[in-house]
Predict the structure.
Amino acid sequence: MRSIILVSLFVAAFLTVHAQQDFQILQSTAQRIVVSYTPKYADTTMRTIEGNEYRFVDVLNSVFHNSDKTGYPQIPSRDFDIGVPSTTGNQINIRSISTAEISGIPLPFPKPEKDLSQKTLLYSKGSVYSGGSIYPNNVVYQYSSGSVRNMPVK
């Protein structure tokens, strides 16, 4: 019975990893792990709202953080877990990043109209659009530490 459960878990893990072809582990040794992430775009259309042109970007397997912040850009985020034992003093370092820009102004998160029967969304650009700096500041970051089977991991 136990071997059937283990085989089932292995198959489920394999299918989950195989389905996520945007994220790959290229190398894994006792000293380092090398991963590659290439986003798969589901939608990158231009949208005209109230006379303004915006770029809507949707990436497969992504979520939109800050959706409660009206006026902030709708920038998709792809989260994935990489666990290393923290009890051995391991560190996570991001050695290199390559990026590509998509032209256009990102669509801001809308503000729902107070009269919900109208089902109207109000779009306005927040202060982050005029700040003159890159948003978000960090393209990649370490999210948090946790535990697996009651063992701490980074």
Summary: The radius of gyration is 20 Å. The chain has two domains: 1-36, 39-153. Residues 29 and 70 are 44 Å apart (CA to CA).
